[in-house]
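Suppose a colleague, Dr. K., hands you the sequence of a protein chain of 458 amino acids and asks what its three-dimensional shape might be. Before reaching for any lab equipment, you can write down a predicted structure in token form. Begin with the sequence itself:
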Amino acid sequence: MIELKDEQVIVAQATAQGAGAIAMLRISGNRAVEIVDSVAHLSGAKKLVDQISHTIHYGWVVDKSGQSVDQVLFLIMRAPKTFTGQDVVEITCHNNQFLVEQIIDIIIGAGARLADQGEFTRRAVLNGKVDLVQAEAINELIHAQTSQALKLSLQQLKGSFSAWIAAIEKQLIHVMAFCEASFEFLDEEITFEDQIKQRLAQVQKDIEQVLQTFDKRQYVTQGVRIALVGSVNAGKSSLFNALINRQRAIVTDIAGTTRDTIEAGMYSDGAYLTFVDTAGLRDSDDVVEKIGIDRSFQEVTSADIVLLVFDATASYAQEEIDLYDSIIQKYRQKIIVVQNKIDAGSNIVPCLQDQEIIAVSVLQSIHIDQLRAKIDEKIDSLMQVGQSPCLLNKRQYNLLLLLQNDLQAIDQSIVMKIDYELLAIRLQDAISKLSELTGKTVTEDALNAIFREFCVGK
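The predicted structure, expressed as tokens, is then:
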């Protein structure tokens, strides 16, 4: 573990800049209370250094000449029961940026320095208050755009993933113990080969389950992309407007009205959804429309859910049938087939007859709620991560993938005969990768890269 080398007191604004009633400044370091006390004037001539931990005091911040700068509240928290593990003072002041910057300058003049990005959380990690995956969860929590992302971040902040890592580490340590015991009693031909193989197999199974959650993460954190695709005049734009509850796409009876993709985002039950209306699928000599049709096929590939829409009043040419068939064959798992205009017809594209079909009429508002329910069902399936902790970022994924590769290599090496001494060395390497996940053995460069993504006040 990297030691905390810089004990200097740091200060930064912890609340976002912008309009608001109050702002909060955070000061951390072993001399934090003393430095703030030198620029504070409390009612009753009290001194901050004489006050007990975790108490709030009303007073003023004063400049070098003794002039009051602002009326504030001082919250004193003494180590080790603080976020950073050091003495911490938080100053709540009026939210005027000129005032905030003036107070920060006064505190820096008293002996502090401006905090680097993520330095408060970095000190919390280095002082053992949180581990690295919990620190990353704090950053994800701050930037969460959906309620599901917020929930996952909170779970990891509470230590769900850290506990999982500890359990995996314990399993690997048990394997090492079996390995060393087998080596010790090699002459007596006492081995624990079966126990070693069984535990390694279980560890790999557990890791694979967590690795699979990384694909789910994008739906939780970035939202779900839903593309409406189908032939011209199938009613995609009308359905698009109905699903987003506003007139976003132009709707006419002219074939090929939508010549490019149109997007609209909305929140639904804590998830962020992006609906994409696409150009109708057909052959066209119009250069602009052909570009739009190409983009429609791109959306089929990139979307998380595809609403494959067809017109119940239309008869489809073989070329159009082939287009629908190729899409359903290639992307079946993410497709919802929608039959539109059932108020005026009942035709079905031949290649779709065996598919589950949601029949709707946008014009008459028939079964739109049923379609929404089907979309919600698909979204729930995408976001379902089961009981396993969910990986939050690429760093965690890459380290766990490296660990999986190491264990697979170990598996291959012990198929015929186990070299217990070599196995113990390789297991120690595997445990080191787990330690890098939580920050026990992380390098300075790795820490710098992680906390570079944090805001200054955190």
